[in-house]
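Figure S7 source data.
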Amino acid sequence: MTLSACRSCGSSSLHEVLSLGEMPLANALPTEAELAAPDARFPLEVVMCSECSLLQLTESVPPPTLFAEYAYFSSRSEPMVAHARALVEEVRAERALGPSNLVVEVASNDGYLLQHYVNAGIPVLGIDPAANVVPHALERGVPTLCEFFTTELAERVRAEGTRADVIHANNVLAHVPDINDFVTAIARLLADDGIAVVETPYVRDLAERLEFDTIYHEHIFYYSLHSLEALFERNGLTVVHVDRIPMHGGSLRVTAARGGAATADETVLGLRDEEKGLGMEAHDYYGDLGARVHALIASIRSFLDDRIQAGRTIAGYGAAAKATVMLNALGAGPETIEFVVDGTPYKQGRYVPGVRIPIFAPEMLLEHKPDDVMIFAWNFAPSIIAKESAYVDAGGTFLLPLPAPHVA
Ligand code: DWN
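Tokens for the predicted DWN complex:
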């Protein structure tokens, strides 16, 4: 364990929750030429702070290594774009946003969300460090700063007279080692009556559904409402509303306002009570998680072995970060999963790190007609199965790994 203190509250009282061994970086997909060198691996271990109850990795990989060039393009998942569109409609109506307002998104990726404000004539600003992704946002008319979001950036933008009426931060709160600076930066950039709308995977869903493949080096933190509120309060934000949403295997969507008069509503009070009732603030809540995860990994492995023993060929769908963790945890290479398909051009022609399984465009399913296809992007299974109905009509079978391996 290389971590000596909780990255959120500073406590040294850290207790092991589970280890997935040495794992490659989930989105560091090697090209053919890069296969000559081994894929870098780092310990993937989760600990819990007994002071603020935040789960976090022992190892943090420098953010430029992970995010300066990025394999993930949000717009390549239609359900993400639809989810973003619905969120924007909700926030626009609730806040009565118009041409005099400003909406900022941190980790704005390829403009998948802010484009919907642009189309409604509402001024936006994206902030994202991925130099290969930001041009796609600019093409969608989303002005974007290609930088990491920090208090230095927030103060610089404030000094130009900019304040945000809404700040979106989806699937980024888990990704930032200096998380206190990040939340302070949100508070500093918000207008006095502004709101932050933050979505991040919910550790309760991970624990209840054994979503171990959502644990990877990009995800440093795994939040409960309790640990998230402790982080926000420390940095000048008050959680005023919370919803549980199904996105990415189950997430929290919190609405936060700058401290002072802001107060938690009944959704926050209710979820606090639920978490207390479950004992989520204590390490015991996660006591058997490691054992249950390793038993699940073994059961997925034997599920696949049985199908191969029966003479079936198997491919994968979604070269997701989850796929890298799943396949490396299974020790499954091309001898088990012949190839993976993905609709992201950046990923096609590359390989799943560690196990070196080739990634092709989805058209490969009908060209090659594997008997089975395991959906590694299981969080989007309904959309994927509907899209690939021709594969099913041709006799193909979709498999799902969670919450236990099964035929979809
Ligand atoms: O936090 C993160 C989440 C939001 O996204 C990032 N750190 C990394 C990433 O995790 P992931 O790669 O596991 O996310 P997804 O969204 O489950 O990945 C889906 C993959 O499947 C993408 O590569 C796109 C692909 N896909 C596809 O090829 N056809 C997805 C859909 C819906 C499709 O129809």
